[in-house]
Amino acid sequence: MDVLQSTINKNSKTFKANYEGMSSLLEQLKAYQEESRFQGSEARIKRARNNDQLLASERIQLVLDKDSPFLELMPLAGLGVDNGFGANGTTIIGIGLVSGKLCMINSNIGTKKGGTMDFSTTKKYIRMNEIILENRLPCIQLVESGGANLPDQVRTFELAGANFREITRRSEAGLTTISVVFGNATAGGAYVPGMSDISVFIKDKAQVFLAGPPLLKMATNEIANAEELGGAEMHSSISGVSDYLAADEVEGIKFARQLMTTIEPSKPHFIPSDFIEAPKYDPDEILGVVSPNIRIPFDVREVIARITDGSKFLEFKPDYGKTLVTGWAEIHGYTVGIIGNNGVLFSESANKATHFIQLCNRNNRPLIYLQNITGFMVGKEYEQGGIIKQGAKMINAVSNSKVPTITINLASSYGAGNYAMNGRSYQPNFMFAYPNSKVSVMGSEQIAGVMEIIQRGKAQRAGVPFDEEKFAPTKADIIEKNEAVSSSWYASGHLWDDGIIDPRETRNYLGFCLNVFNNKAINGTQTYGVFRM
Questions:
Q1: In angstroms, rounded to a whole number, what is the distance separating the alpha carbons of residues 237 and 235?
Q2: Which residues contact 463 (CB under 8 A, 6 or more apart)?
Q3: What secondary structure, in 3-state letters, does 391-449 show?
Q4: Is pLDDT of 228 > 90?
Q5: pLDDT > 70 in the chain, percent
Q6: What is the model's pLDDT at position 252?
Q7: 320: which DSSP letter?
Q8: Residue 518 CB neighbour total at 10 angstroms
């Protein structure tokens, strides 16, 4: 493969302005990440300490192998969501190594709202289940949850039920779920250990019941204490809901790690060599390549040169459909296909992508989509030339592709361009975003402009003059509101991606995800829907 030759001048005003602007956005990202690490009030944490309980994040550190990386997923879920519990909801979800095996880990934050599930938390569970099934991962649930948040039950009830359903579907698919119960797991929360393949309860701490003493008294007039209803010893010796009784949290986590050794190891599709060549160009320079202002273009090859092994890239059809860059590279030793935007999509660009996606599927190569797209080219010439038809072919290929995919929104992701570049609705296996990125039907100015044209048309049909002065504040309001809901923070808060990342860590995120993909066989496809010719 050829080594990409960078043309970036690190001393230029543009590079320095980009670097400064992106650094500022990263400070905002750090602030939101710190917010996502909130695990409850000081009083609630103190109570946990006095009760010899660990925090959710500490439980994860204990269950992971020493020096294991941990790919936290959806850490900003819930950010800016009305009537919710804030960033991260009430659970920490991610992938790491446990007893040498890649494993999904879900740790309820029992010190935050009792670990009850708000809307964003239940949506995190749904997304977690998708990732587990797609990548055939076992799962460890570190349980301490009061079930659904009752004031939000209208939004959480159905999603919570789907989460319990998926535990059993994972079991049917041969994917083991191990639950360790550290405290209350009441009402719906009781179904998590109840539906898991193996459950471990902590002595004198775990309390698992569908109805606690107060509800039992109200519903049946029966009087019973918490231990009789759902204590760890009762469930371990009488009901059989618990398979192991642990003396304390450390022993409970030890059981989980030991149980992971009994699970059949995966058969990796491919194992890279020990020697991995670093990029020729410093990934830190991505901050100067990509602009915080998404209207300022950049060559996606400059990003590719800073994430691939040896900055090498074998470009496919370099002289055709030049607004889309396609080609092969290695990232942490894994061969991948890369599709990146360098402008609006024309018919030639779409045809090139369709061809390339077919090649990657035939050769079982995962695909990486690097989004920076405002959409497809419009206008009489392009409509008559069949832009819809060519775009439909590309979306057909994206939709029916069977190799694993990762999508990263580097800047903009608008309209049908989002679809063609494997946006969230096209189910990439993982999707991440840069902090400067935006996602929307179209840009804010375009939306406001369309609304202005509509209002002008109404005025003309009514035979009255269009009031420019009166419409001005309305136009400004449209732009302001769309800017807010198209921001990376809004998108990640509403789980339109799996997390906002530091651009300098792009290569490492990709490498980890590729390792997850290769946990199982990778099989592309040679069948698609009808390609309209």
A1: 6
A2: none
A3: HHHHHHHHHHCCCCEEEEEEEEEEHHHHHHCCCHHHCCCEEEECCCCEEECCCHHHHHH
A4: no
A5: 99
A6: 98
A7: S
A8: 21
